[in-house]
């Protein structure tokens, strides 16, 4: 695969029987890996969030990663239909119908119980199943009083609610990533949609469906996950015949926060994909040097002094890096390189 192949995602839409449109994105080439994302999503903004994009680029090497925005989120239009597991499965079915072969299926967070329900109902479509940060019974995630407090906060004070949830979802993320993540959540949907989908997360119960899953399954979880207790991962693995349980260190619920690289290695090994020692990014050796210095907080003048070039050349390198990676700011370059430094 060429370096450029992973640089841009391809966007498209699919329509449900009732006219609901769902936007989906593909990146990479090869056998499909359908990725059912968590609570709130935005295909374009998630691609611009450096740490999240690095996760998708890593997963897409050697396969075709397919993600979608659930109705009411991101690039998918708002709808009047209430959130439900049946509606979630309709959306997944519409995306799956664009594929002409069995696929690997990965569900993260709220997407995990949705993926379980799909795999139980459509065993012939799923090659392998990965469940990350998921649960069998949403009712067991937290006490009722805590759930009601969080739902009320999201509904009445979406700005504060997104900040609180970011602290829960990504305690191991660096401050710039956490700030971007809070803004990102608010841009994904309205407060009403956010509340409805969070409420659905608490309502989902697939415990009775686990025994019907036939696909080889890996249940991956972080030991200190504050949003979904590790006991839920244990319940998923115990209920699915032959499932592998992999508990990783860390507290972050969001897959691209914390030790993303080890998570990617576990998933790729299970799916039978090569575990790359380094990621292709399309940058020249000099551009990687510049990106490294940007990530360390150097100004263009400081970069020029360190590399023995003039300041205008340093500025040009930064601009070409920004354009190559599709970023809008120097901060995004810094966050992206910082997240990938040990792989470059």
From TrEMBL:
GO MF annotation list: hydrolase activity
InterPro entries: AB_hydrolase, AB_hydrolase_1, AB_hydrolase_fold, Sig_transdc_resp-reg_C-effctor, Tscrpt_reg_LuxR_C, WH-like_DNA-bd_sf
SUPFAM superfamilies in alphabetical order: alpha/beta-Hydrolases, C-terminal effector domain of the bipartite response regulators
Protein's UniProt keywords contain Hydrolase: yes
UniProt domain HTH luxR-type: residue ranges: 276-341
Presence of keyword Cytoplasm: no
UniProt keyword list: Hydrolase
PANTHER family: BIFUNCTIONAL LIPASE_ADENYLATE CYCLASE LIPJ, HYDROLASE, ALPHA/BETA FOLD FAMILY PROTEIN
Name listed for the protein in its UniProt record: Alpha/beta fold hydrolase
């Amino acid at each position: 695969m060429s370096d450029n192949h992973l640089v841009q995602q391809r966007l498209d839409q699919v329509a449900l029987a009732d006219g609901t449109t769902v936007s989906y994105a593909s990146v990479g080439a090869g056998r499909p890996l359908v990725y059912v994302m968590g609570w709130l999503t935005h295909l374009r903004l998630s691609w611009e969030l450096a740490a999240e994009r690095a996760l998708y680029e890593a997963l897409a090497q050697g396969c075709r990663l397919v993600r979608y925005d659930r109705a009411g989120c991101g690039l998918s239009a708002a709808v009047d239909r209430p959130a439900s597991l049946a509606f979630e499965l309709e959306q997944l079915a519409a995306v799956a119908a664009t594929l002409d072969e069995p696929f690997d299926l990965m569900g993260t967070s709220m997407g995990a119980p949705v993926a379980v329900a799909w795999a139980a109902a459509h065993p012939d479509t799923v090659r392998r199943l990965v469940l990350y940060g998921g649960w069998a019974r949403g009712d067991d995630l937290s006490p009722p009083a805590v759930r009601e407090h969080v739902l009320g906060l999201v509904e009445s004070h979406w700005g504060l609610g997104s900040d609180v949830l970011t602290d829960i979802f990504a305690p191991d993320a660096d401050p710039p990533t956490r700030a971007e993540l809070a803004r990102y959540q608010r841009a994904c949907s309205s407060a009403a949609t956010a509340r409805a989908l969070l409420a659905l997360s608490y309502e989902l119960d697939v415990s009775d469906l686990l025994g019907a899953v036939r696909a080889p399954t890996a249940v991956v979880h972080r030991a200190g996950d504050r949003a979904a207790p590790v006991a839920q991962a244990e319940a998923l693995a115990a209920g699915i015949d032959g499932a592998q349980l992999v508990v990783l260190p860390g507290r972050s619920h969001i897959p691209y926060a914390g030790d993303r690289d080890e998570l990617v290695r576990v998933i790729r090994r299970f799916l039978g994909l090569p575990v790359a020692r380094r990621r292709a990014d399309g940058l020249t050796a000099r551009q990687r040097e510049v990106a490294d210095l940007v990530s360390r907080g150097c100004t263009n003048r400081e970069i020029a002094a360190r590399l023995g070039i003039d300041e205008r050349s340093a500025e040009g390198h930064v601009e070409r890096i920004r354009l190559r990676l599709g970023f809008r700011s120097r901060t995004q370059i810094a966050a992206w390189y910082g997240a990938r430094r040990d792989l470059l």
